[in-house]
Design a protein that fits this description.
elongated, mainly alpha, disordered C terminus, 5 helices
Amino acid sequence: GCTVTPFNQGPSPSLPDAICAILSKLKSSNTVANMENIIAKIKTDFHDIPVPKDFVNLVHKTLGALIKARRVYYTGKGYFLVVPENNSVTRQSWHDHFKQFAIRSPQKSIDNSSQTE
């Protein structure tokens, strides 16, 4: 028969949240947020997110969903986060929101903090 062995998973954001964090980071470093750079950052900064064969298509569809949700917009020069008038506060909140993933601390109540949009 089958046996199921539970294992501990580290905190891993959803793909849409990871993409938003990456867009913020790319903008703050004055790097073009094109598909190539977004995928490279997902692989390096969010290596816990699985990368299936159709990953480019999955990222493209996720970006499309973020655009429809008005969280992201696209120009011929790349993808950008939609931010309110006070974008310095938003940029800081994205940084704080995802700092826990960069330092691998235990996941706190991430759902509550993401509902402030």
